[in-house]
Design a protein that fits this description.
By secondary structure, this protein is of the alpha/beta class. The chain contains 18 helices and 13 strands. The strands form 3 sheets. A 6-stranded parallel sheet has the order 3-2-1-4-5-6, with helices on both faces. Strands 7, 8, 9 and 10 form a 4-stranded antiparallel sheet that branches. The N and C termini lie far apart (46 Å). The record marks 106 as: Increases basicity of active site Tyr.
């Protein structure tokens, strides 16, 4: 049993490997392979991974490679978490739109579309390489962002690939709900949810007969935030708490849940809806000179690589050297459900085919599914109201146009994708952003004619 992590140099890799090691017996995993095109970065991250496995006295063997065949041969699970262009390009994704008065964000708006064009073909290359070398019954579990664009590209170009696209944001929201309501067992919540990736709504959240959606809605309306009481207390003295989802930009995000709920209290929104429904507010709250990319580079990136340097010098791994939590647990639990046919419920990105009754069958939607050895068994969510349908179809059209434009090398279709995005006020602004993005992404994008 072999698990390969694509993007082995990611700051998330140590946490994911720890999640795998904690489930070693259930997964029966014998070897973890790290694969990255950045050999130096991956080597440094692998030092922490090696320390984790030894510290846990895990029998898992670690392989670190930049060779595709070595990475994929006979692998059963491939965890993909590529960041094409790294944080240098993420910074441009965020800052270029802000210069034009539009949302600057990693996966949403023009920044997300730009990132999608960079990731589209590298993801297809991973699928082809895995198909060539991995075990015939392999599964690719993909965290690579922007998941909505990546999943549409996979549907269009490799419709039969054994890939499940996922996002940890829904589980991160449920974790925050649990903290707000003082219920630690957030992974046991029963939920219903519909939407697109980073563009969806929780319609039901229950736990042991309790209607948590009603409780959390009341909590948010009272406290004007989805931040839990312990964090609110800490924030009276400090402007950040030091957790992954609690840096300055995330504090704005959790507070904006209140604003979104004010206008539509029917369902609990995915936090990323702020970028579409509150785009003016988000731009006004943003610092165009210091975005989320800079936050991450100054926190998670800095902590990990400073921790690695400290480990090399002293042999000690500091507590904040790596992040472990819902991100790693979610993907490892999904692998466990596939391997052991548990039929556990997860929120995943799948081709619609009636899951949302009045949305196009070829749409890549994010909905709950029971996960077993044959993949997702989708739980249909029925028809949705015009408000949600209209929002989703506009966003879906933007993403589909982008993928089609990337595949065909069509400037016109990519421009239309930027123009249709709800974060952009006009076609002329879309063109100005696109033209600047083309220059910034010369090394990564397909040629647009």
């Amino acid at each position: 049993m072999i698990i390969t992590i694509v993007g082995g140099g990611s700051t998330f890799t140590p946490g994911i490997v720890k999640s795998i090691a904690l489930r070693q017996k259930e997964l029966e995993v014998e070897e973890v392979r790290l694969f990255d095109i950045d050999e130096d970065r991956q080597y440094k991250v692998s030092l922490v991974v090696d320390w984790i496995l030894k510290d846990m006295k895990s029998p898992i063997r670690l392989t670190v490679t930049t060779d595709k065949r070595t990475a994929y041969e006979n692998s059963s699970f491939i965890f993909a978490q590529m960041r094409v262009g790294k944080y240098a390009m993420r910074e441009k994704d965020e800052k270029i739109p802000l210069r034009h008065g539009c949302v600057g964000q990693e996966t949403c708006g023009c920044g997300g579309l730009a990132y999608g064009l960079r990731t589209l073909f590298p993801m297809i290359q991973v699928i082809d390489d895995v198909e060539k070398y991995a075990a015939p019954d392999h599964w690719i579990l993909n965290y690579s962002n922007p998941a909505a664009v990546v999943s549409e590209a996979c549907r269009a170009l490799r419709p039969h690939a054994r890939i499940i696209n996922i996002c940890d944001m829904p589980i991160a929201i449920l974790e925050m709900v649990g903290r707000c309501l003082d219920i630690p067992n957030f992974t046991d919540f029963d939920v219903n949810y519909f939407g697109l990736n980073h563009f969806g709504w929780f319609t039901d959240i229950t736990y042991q007969g309790r209607d948590l959606k009603a409780e959390i809605t009341e909590y948010v309306m009272k406290n004007k935030t989805l931040l839990p009481p312990d964090v609110l207390e800490k924030l009276k003295e400090h402007d950040r708490v030091g957790e992954r989802h609690l840096n300055a930009s995330w504090i704005h995000t959790w507070n904006n849940v209140y604003k979104v709920l004010q206008s539509n209290p029917e369902y609990l929104p995915n936090t990323y809806l702020q970028y579409y429904l509150l785009s003016k507010d988000v731009v006004e709250e943003s610092n165009p000179e210091y975005t989320r990319a800079n936050e991450v580079m100054d926190s998670r990136e800095k902590d990990l690589f400073e921790g690695i340097d400290h480990y090399i010098k002293t042999g000690e791994v500091t507590a904040k050297a790596f992040y472990h939590g819902a991100h790693g647990n979610y993907i490892a639990d999904l692998a466990m459900a596939l391997k052991n046919d548990t039929k556990k419920k997860f929120i995943v990105i799948v081709q619609n085919n009636g899951a949302i009754e009045n949305i196009a069958p070829d749409a890549m939607v994010e909905v709950p599914a029971y996960i077993g050895k044959n993949g997702p068994e989708v739980i249909c969510q029925g028809p949705i109201d015009d408000y949600y349908k209209g929002l989703m179809e506009q966003q879906l059209a933007s993403e589909k146009l982008l993928v089609a434009g990337g595949i065909e090398g069509s400037y016109e279709k990519v421009w239309k994708a930027f123009s249709m995005n709800k974060t952009v006020p006009s076609a002329t602004v879309a063109k100005a952003i696109l033209d600047e993005m083309i220059e910034a992404n010369k090394e990564f994008w397909p040629e647009l004619r």
